[in-house]
Structure formats: C-alpha cells, structure tokens
C-alpha cells in the first residue's frame, strides 16, 4: 500500500502556487521511489538490436561456417597457370602417407659443402610436395650418416649442423671406412634408433647419387612391404635381381630385413668387406630378400665421355637416380637437365646470364 505524502507538504502557507509545487514534488517522489520508469522507443531498439544480431549469428551463420570457409577459399585461389609455389602457402589437405622411407646418406664429417648441396636438392623436393606433376605420397626422411668425430673442428661444426638441421646420425661403433663395417653399423643402429616408430623401407645411399624422390616413391609404391630388396643389379650387364646383389650407390631394404640384419649373426660376423656385395651375401646365406626388384636402367651411373661399363648411360626423363656425381659441374649438369631451378622468379636482387 503506497505511503501518503508528508502532511507538511500539503499545508498552505497562504500561497496557492506553493501548494501546487508541493503537490508536484510529492508526485515526483512517488514515481521515483515506487515505480520503474518507462523506456523510450529508441532505448528499446538499442537493447533489442544486439540480441537480434546474436540470434542471427547463432541460427544462420554458425551452422554454415564450413560452407562459408570453402566459398572464401575458392574465391581466394590463384588463377590457373599461377606458379605452383604460390599455392603451396595454402594449408594442404593432410592425408596418410602410403609408406615411410628413411634414406641414409653415408658420407664423411668433413664434407660440409656436399651436405649443403644435398640438403638443397632433397629439401626442395620434400618442401614442394609436387614435382613435375608427381605427388610425393610417402613420408620421406633424409639423414646424413658418418662415424665418430675425430677432429676438434668436427666436434664444433657438426653439432652446429645438428642444431640447425637435425638431420645427422653419428655412429659410435665404426671407423670412417665404407668397407670397414659402416653399412652394417648404420642398418643395425637404424633398427634400434627407430624401433618405436619404424619405417617401411630403409635406403642406403652414397653422397654422390642424385635421387629424384617422386620417381623413387612412385617406383616403391607397388612393392611388397616385407622381405624386399630393391636397387640396380650387379654386374652391370645383368638385369636379373637374383643373379648377385644390388649396387651400393643406392639400394632399399624393407624394415623386416633391417631388423633381421641388426640381430643376425650372419651379418655381424661378415660386416667387413665390399659393403654392397656383403649385403647380398647376408641375404643369400640367410635365405632372405625373396622379393627382389631391379630398377635399371632408371638407376644408373653418370655417362662419361668414354663409358666405363654398361651401368652408365645418358639422362632420361624417367630416371630415378643418377650416380657418380663426383664434382659440382656434374651436379650442375644433372640438375639443369631435370630443370631444378625452373621455379626461380626474376628479381632485382639477382641476374643470371643465359
């Protein structure tokens, strides 16, 4: 029940206007203390507008979020013919790789320049995810492998490489001699190092071989995942993968064979000698490598002016690997043939003569 205004405000003091003012003040006090003021139309609009906007976003925009993102992505795509590298900046659709391949490049600690070159050659192929319209559908890791460090400068410069690149494996149980057990030490170490996350294949490669990763991946994609031995057959005149063994320039073993080599007395007791010949001998004695594949002529030696043997021949567009690139001019000739610098844009920062 509303309270009455104070009686002293209703008393007349002889002035009628004063009484009216007192009545007006009383009414104002009543509205102020006893009721909520009414909102104007503009105030109501200011309150309702944000609520309507939130409802619109919740019911209409949010359910179509992915559709809108797809439309925006399509609108922002570069036109056909735009350099492929521009499209590489866009998030790629992730897919499970067909298989995992480890490439162990057996080299020496002092060969810093060669590792720099190989990092560029393989890094471009791994980063682009596309080379000559061939998609790299496998997970490929390249690691540089050498034996214990024995020079003071190596103990500083090699750790520096590891800090920057993280792609070096230093073997502790071997001397720096390719035929002194290094291949056996690498394969047995790989089986232990990567036991928790094994590869499907392991490739032993020389540091003077150029491997075209998309072509290698395509060649391996249909191969068995077990008891598999892949490479270029020796002797050079033979095309029979069961005749002798695969050339040491670069051959591939399935993971189960790598594990077998790591635990086999056959390999451990025959670890010193011509390394590629020994690998073939291990498999022969152990009855392993029943799935063998010859990749010749796609894997071959660099063609000398006067050919040495039948392992040499000229470049072809279908080449998987080229061996015996002993000098920078040979590397340059090979990379030029396969158009490795085609993606280089013109710039004010450099100019090359034709």
UniProtKB/TrEMBL annotation:
Coiled coil: none annotated. GO terms for cellular component: Golgi membrane. Pathway: Protein modification; protein glycosylation. It comes from the Eukaryota. Keywords: Glycosyltransferase, Golgi apparatus, Manganese, Membrane, Signal-anchor, Transferase, Transmembrane, Transmembrane helix. It is an enzyme of class 2 (transferase). It holds the Pfam family Galactosyl_T. One of its GO terms (molecular function) is hexosyltransferase activity. It is a single-pass type II membrane protein. PANTHER family: BETA-1,3-GALACTOSYLTRANSFERASE PVG3, BETA-1,3-N-ACETYLGLUCOSAMINYLTRANSFERASE. This is Hexosyltransferase.
């Amino acid at each position: 029940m509303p309270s009455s205004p104070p009686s002293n405000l209703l008393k007349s003091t002889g002035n009628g206007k004063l009484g009216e003012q007192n009545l007006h003040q009383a009414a104002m006090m009543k509205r102020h203390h006893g009721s909520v003021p009414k909102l104007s139309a503009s105030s109501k609009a200011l309150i309702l507008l944000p609520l309507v906007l939130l409802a619109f976003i919740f019911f209409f925009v949010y359910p179509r979020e992915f559709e809108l993102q797809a439309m925006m992505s399509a609108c922002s795509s570069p036109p056909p013919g735009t350099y492929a590298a521009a499209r590489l900046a866009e998030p790629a659709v992730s897919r499970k790789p067909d298989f995992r391949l480890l490439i162990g490049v057996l080299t020496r600690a002092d060969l810093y320049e060669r590792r720099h070159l190989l990092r560029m050659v393989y890094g471009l192929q791994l980063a682009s995810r596309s080379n000559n319209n061939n998609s790299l559908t496998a997970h490929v890791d390249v690691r540089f492998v050498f034996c214990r460090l024995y020079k003071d400068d190596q103990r500083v410069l090699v750790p520096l490489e590891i800090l920057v690149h993280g792609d070096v494996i230093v073997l502790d149980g071997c001397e720096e001699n390719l035929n002194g057990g290094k291949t056996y030490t690498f394969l047995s170490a790989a089986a232990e190092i990567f036991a928790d996350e094994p590869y499907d294949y392991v490739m032993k490669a020389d540091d003077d071989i150029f491997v075209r990763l998309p072509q290698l991946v395509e060649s391996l994609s249909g191969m068995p995942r077990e008891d598999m031995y892949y490479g270029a057959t020796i002797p050079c005149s033979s095309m029979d993968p069961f005749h002798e063994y695969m050339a040491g320039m670069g051959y591939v073993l399935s993971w189960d064979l790598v594990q077998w080599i790591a635990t086999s007395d056959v390999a451990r007791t025959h670890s010193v000698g011509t390394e590629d010949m020994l690998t073939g001998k291990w498999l022969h004695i152990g009855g392993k490598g029943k799935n063998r594949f010859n990749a010749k002529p796609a894997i071959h030696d660099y063609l000398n002016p006067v050919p040495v043997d039948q392992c040499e021949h000229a470049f072809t567009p279908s080449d998987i690997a080229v061996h015996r690139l002993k000098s920078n001019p040979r590397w340059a000739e090979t990379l030029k043939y396969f158009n490795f610098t085609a993606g280089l844009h013109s710039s004010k920062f450099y100019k090359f003569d034709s």
